[in-house]
Amino acid sequence: MKTDIVDTPTPIDHLKAISSWVSSVQDLDKLLHLIIESATNVVRAEAASLLLMDTKTNTLYFKVATGTKGKEVKEFRVKLGEGIAGHVAQTGQALLIADAQQDSRWMRTISDRIDFETRSMACVPLKINDRTIGVVQVINKQDDSRFSQADMDVLEEFSNLAALAIGSARSLEQVRQENQDLKKKLGEKHQIIGKSLILDKVLKDAQKLSRTKTTALIQGESGTGKELVARLIHRESPRRDKPLVVLNCAALPEPLLESELFGHEKGAFTGATSRKIGKFEAAHEGSLFLDEIGEMAPGIQAKLLRVLQEGVFYRVGGNTPITVDVRVLSATNKDLKKEVEEGNFREDLFYRLNVVQLDTPPLRERLEDVPFLVNHFLEVFKKETGLLNLTVSQDAMDKMTHYEWPGNIRELRNAIERAVVMGDGKTILPEDLPISASLPKFAGLRVGLTLDEALNEFKKEFILLNLQHTGGNRSKAAKIMDIQRTYLSRLITRYGMRDLA
Ligand SMILES: Nc1ncnc2c1ncn2[C@@H]1O[C@H](COP(=O)(O)OP(=O)(O)O)[C@@H](O)[C@H]1O
Ligand SMILES: [Mg+2]
């Protein structure tokens, strides 16, 4: 019989206990332990435990166990339907046992093995959305009396609390997992492929830049991966968990662009029916990527400059200064320096944006990356279409590595997508690709030709080059070469180039 006097906890003690729960919501094990310990104290039990169901084996395991034998009891598992806990877990109904020794449902094995005398018990189910996921039980009153209905009610409340904690933790874990999967997928989608030295240099510079808050301008032809580089810088930066906000400056007329960037107050202009947060605010503590910055109107250029200089701006129609911490990245396919010289872009803004400049190289300067890119995009489209056995023929690969790719990687990606869709589903052949083959430079030249024959070889190659450049458009090619279209057509026939062009 127990004789030691335990002080009844005061309301302050309970409040203190609860406040420590609040701070441990991130740590489920600790929280459950606190809940069960409090339950033990409140109903003045000798021991308590929380058992959870392992649905694979249909057994209950001890998640938390208090009391003198708490550690030992954790070694055991209880089969569903066996003993008091197994019974409650199976039926979902609470049980109040005055004297376990007299109850046929009680299983003495565990008590005997750990040498713990079980007398009175109360056991309630642990439910999430009406589904029993485990039980909470208390054993032996400290004063050797029996558990009452009032104790059961208290226990039920604690059990609900524990269920709530477990439910939240599981949802949180699910969200975390989903978030991780999505980030992984996004990372894959935005992976930068290529092993050429020239690309490697850009990536190394981007890595270095990511550690700082330095403003960077990414310059390069369309389709060379400027946005990918911006994403890389953000992803590798300490800001990675905050948003990367992207805004295309060419897509919107001036007034709209201004309110997109800085937001507006309700009633700032007709149609401003509510306050709107701008991209700068949305990117707070993260990064803002301003694409096609070369297209920005002069009025907005001035406003952007002020934000970059002072870190402060106003929403359109507002007079409260707003301070944000944003890392600005921008991109252009124009020669921005030239735009400055021609008076189209503010020089002071140019220097603000261009603290560091990264140049994304065109694909024709890194043709050695073509096979890697081809395989990468092939994998992407294989997954998308389910054509898992699709391969690229050597001829098709050769054709792609010899082509000059005026539209850069975007064009390459589109070419492969088209070939996947239009091909036979097994092997991508040269004719599936919407590009025309480049011949090696002056392939037909050799000793033994007359000058006329050699000139014809040159003309043939030159015409091909121009036709490739215009995607096979004869009118455009003729215009570039400054000859008549009809004359071009005659040359194509004469040189038997119909199949190539
Ligand atoms: N090095 C690369 N590796 C993989 N994909 C790339 C690479 N560079 C560009 N791409 C792809 O090419 C397309 C154009 O890239 P993007 O970053 O939008 O170019 P830009 O902004 O310079 O026009 C996108 O589909 C992008 O995923
Ligand atoms: Mg782009």
Automatic annotation (TrEMBL):
CDD domains: AAA. It comes from Desulfosarcina ovata subsp. ovata. This is Fis family transcriptional regulator. GO terms for molecular function: ATP binding; sequence-specific DNA binding. PANTHER family: C4-DICARBOXYLATE TRANSPORT TRANSCRIPTIONAL REGULATORY PROTEIN DCTD (PTHR32071:SF57), TRANSCRIPTIONAL REGULATORY PROTEIN (PTHR32071). SMART domains: AAA, GAF. The keyword DNA-binding applies. InterPro entries: AAA+_ATPase, AAA_lid_NorR, GAF, GAF-like_dom_sf, Homeodomain-like_sf, HTH_Fis, P-loop_NTPase, Sigma_54_int.
